[in-house]
Amino acid sequence: MATRSSILSTADTRRPMVAAAALSEFARGGYHGTTVAHVARAAKISPAYVFKLYPRKEALFVAALEACFDRILDALSEGADAAPSPSPAAVLEAMGDAYAALIRDRTLLMLQVHAQSVAEIEEIGSALRAGLARVTEFARDRSGGSDDDVQRFMAYGQLCHLIVTARIDESPARWAQILSQGIRHPD
Questions:
Q1: Angstrom distances, CA of residue 9 to CA of 15, 38, 45, 148
Q2: Which residues of 65-103 are buried (b: 16+ CB within 10 A; e: fewer)?
Q3: Model confidence over 136-150: pLDDT tens digits?
Q4: Which of 25, 69, 97, 186 is surrounded by the most beta carbons within 10 Å?
Q5: Residue 67 and residue 53 in contact, taking contact as beta carbons nearer than 8 Å
Q6: CB atoms within 10 A of CB 34
Q7: 145: three-class secondary structure by DSSP
Q8: CA-based torsion, 53, 130, 68, 80: positive or negative
């Protein structure tokens, strides 16, 4: 017979796996278009077990969003480590390059876009703001940049989101060239 501690251990082991499945599923279908059953199928567990781990769909989406921001921070850290100099500009640029490489797979990017679209759901809006706070504070602390430097870094990241999601860099139109000038995303 399973003991209470082995059940908790199994749940603790399964939570990250379910959050990863939720990240992929919510990135594909959004909050409203993705069911807990979709996530359960991707995680190869029952919907009832998903609800045991995450009692509400909002909690499941938040877990996916937290996993998304964890991966972003890991990439930014690796980028900062690879900066050619310790200057704030070099560190922020290296972090931006690492993020651009990360969103080559649009999964993390699309989850953030979907989170923004349902940020009025308090639990999701709070998690989104907490994730953005983590990224902003990390960029400031790790780069040593000024508040203005970090604001430009974050604004540039949002512009990159727009360029990638709307495929602006694929348009030959003058307005698209203005927005995407100097911005390159790895293929």
A1: 10, 24, 16, 45
A2: bbbbbeebbebbeebbeebeeeebeebbbbbbbbbbebb
A3: 999 999 999 999 999
A4: 25
A5: no
A6: 22
A7: coil
A8: negative
Separation between Cα atoms, residue 11 and residue 66, nearest integer Å: 17
Residue pointed to by tokens 């080559």: 104
- Tokens representing residue 129 in the block: 């703001």
Question: Is 76 in contact with 142 (CB distance < 8 Å)?
Answer: yes
Q: SS3 of 15, please? A: helix
Q: What is the pTM assigned to this prediction?
A: 0.89
86 Cβ neighbours under 8 A, 6+ residues apart: 144
DSSP assignments along 87-103, one per residue: SHHHHHHHHHHHHHHHT
Mean pLDDT (whole number) for 23-35: 98
CA-based nearest residue to 34, from 106, 123, 118: 118
